[in-house]
Specification:
Layout (H helix, E strand, L loop, with lengths): L2 H20 L8 E7 L3 E7 L5 E7 L7 H19 L13 H12 L3
Antiparallel strand pairs: 1-2, 2-3
């Protein structure tokens, strides 16, 4: 991970935390939209009702994704996450090491699944 990548991630987590604390508690939409933008990247966020945050970093020079496409992508990632952590033998704080989860995430992100 480069220093600039690290800076983006740290800034994004700060921004995501700020956004979620300012968010209307009655809002049921977990999709936060673009929360951080640089010259090269846009970072989008999704927060579950359990406060799990999903971040997606997109190169601004790639083809733009529409909000509905991003919402769908985040919902699919959320479903894959729930499937992975619903295993009773997995600790909620543990790093997810499931090959099935890894394969699912790669397929969702690359658009092949």
């Amino acid at each position: 991970m480069t220093i600039s990548s690290h800076a983006i991630i740290v800034s994004t987590f700060t921004s995501a935390n700020t956004t979620t604390t300012k968010r209307d508690p009655a809002s049921l939409d977990p999709y936060l939209g673009a929360i951080y933008t640089t010259e090269r990247h846009k970072v989008f966020a999704y927060v579950t009702n359990c406060k799990t945050k999903f971040l997606l970093v997109i190169d601004t020079h790639s083809s733009p994704l529409k909000d509905e496409e991003l919402r769908t992508l985040f919902k699919r990632l959320h479903t894959a996450y729930v499937d992975a952590v619903s295993n009773p033998f997995v600790s909620p704080e543990a790093i997810i090491t499931s090959p099935r989860f890894d394969t699912s995430v790669r397929a969702i992100v690359t658009g092949s699944g």
